[in-house]
Batch of 3 targets.
Target 1
Amino acid sequence: MNDMQPDPKLTAPVEAVPLSDSLPESFVDLDQALASPRSSNLNDPRRILPSQEYKPASVWKKFVALLGLGAFSILGGLVITLIVGLLAIAAALILQTAIS
């Protein structure tokens, strides 16, 4: 009952896929038996996407990103403050007309 069973929905580990004309028998099912194994291997995203080396961002790019984030935060804060202020003014006018 507590036996571990492999989950068929799990993704494959990211590793290089060799170009081969045949697949292991464990991967072949009825749908794959009808298609050619070479074409299904060529559609593998690990083969399509090139490997990329990590390049750290320069100090200039980090500074520009920080300035943009700060400006966006300040402008967002101003917009929220204006909206809350306008709602407070509208609520005060509605309350004043309701009282008088």
Note: The radius of gyration is 30 Å.
Target 2
Amino acid sequence: MVEVLPLAHPAFIVRGKWGHRQFSVRALRDLRLRCEASPEARPPLPEEPGTAPLPQTMLHPTKAAIIAFVLGLPVTSPEGVAIDIEAAGPHVRQIGLARWDESYLSIMVLREGGEQYWERGDLRDIVSAMVQVFPTVPLWFQNGQNYDIPELLELGFPESLSDAYARGGDTMFMMRHAYQDAPADLQFIGVQLGSMMPWKRLAKAGTEDEQEGK
């Protein structure tokens, strides 16, 4: 196996992209450490399409499983919950929730084509559970203030959602505050600061803002 380490070219950095310098230096240090470490120390590879999801991942949970997951968050993840909204235009399609122990839950809202995923009463019960719990735990987003929070408010969540957001954080804002010249998209943050492997093999054309910072 040939290991490749993508780095910003020095000429790219000295022409004004100074935000990449510290991450290039860190990547070179990590490479040296990884060469000296055992193979077990390497970060895991992302799952390939078609492979079984992790045991703690629920991609198509039942209504009861969703409500139990959500209502249990104050106990199972008091440090907070990460939220990611996927939408088609102004319409919420999916809500992803990740606990502190990396357990993940996917809540579908719309099917492909725009059809409602749940019966109206079931969706009301699921949203009611989230409305009850979300203001009580810190919420973590990537570009939440500009995107996810407005989407949730449009779905019917109360304004108190912003208070829970204030107790949590926004990884995009934190990145732009700590490393002002560096990219703040989620994959860059995960790779550079979370020791994760790149997971986006196909990049959508457009600016960072057009891609919602993901």
Note: The beta strands are 57-58, 81-88, 91-98, 104-108, 139-141, 169-170.
Target 3
Amino acid sequence: MSPLKVAKIMVLTILLIAAGFFFGSACERINQQYYLILLLDRDFLYVLLSLLLAMATVAVTGGLVAVLVRPFWICVVAFAISALAAFFAWEVSLASGVAALIYLIVSLLYSRGVAEALDNTLKFSVETISGSQSRLLAGLAIAACASLYFGYAVEIEERGFALPPAMRDIISEMTMAPMRAQIEAQTNLTSDEKNALLAQIMGSLEEQWMRPMEEMIQSYERFVPLMVAFMLFQALAVIITLFSWLPIVILAMIFPTLTGLGVAKKVTEMREMERLTMD
């Protein structure tokens, strides 16, 4: 293997490792801010976009490595190191270990699928690897949801379930808004009397509705992480279904560019084929 080819492989491997670290960081953010999934607000959108960008980065760099890096064992090593980088991007825990293992298994299956698809096609095309790309993205979504599930499950086991403060505020605001408007419209009450009445209603809301709801959820708290992880997976599945073509389009632009720059080249091979026919 020439020094130039070794240098090219190292560059692609470094890109894949960086993508793995980026993906791990995005999963860690999802893990730490799980409550945003329950709120579905603008902050959740930012976290979700960060995760989707990380997944797309892995899909693109993984596609480059799976197609261009040979022999195959070097490709396996590159994906293994990328999974290790994803592991260290999270905090070292059971959650990150399970998610990194899923990442490794999915990426190895992906690289093997790409290699087999290229071996069974007569002319190279990115469309050949499109099916493997979709499976890779689905596997990355499972890894992210597994990280969220295990991290949240450990927290509930240690601290018990509690409604996130932001969610309590939203529920309180939605419930109190009509009552606050009615109280503010009362002209026979002073400002202090209005504030005291609002505080009394807030206390009743906490005692008669908020706390009983929280206690009811606590009876099924072991299922809460699964529900939250499933909500995230549903959102990712819809987005992957709609936009799984995007990494393929990016690769379709990158491969000709690499060929034009001399980084890659097209090679024509003559193969012997064995078929079974009838005399």
Note: The two ends are 46 Å apart (CA to CA).
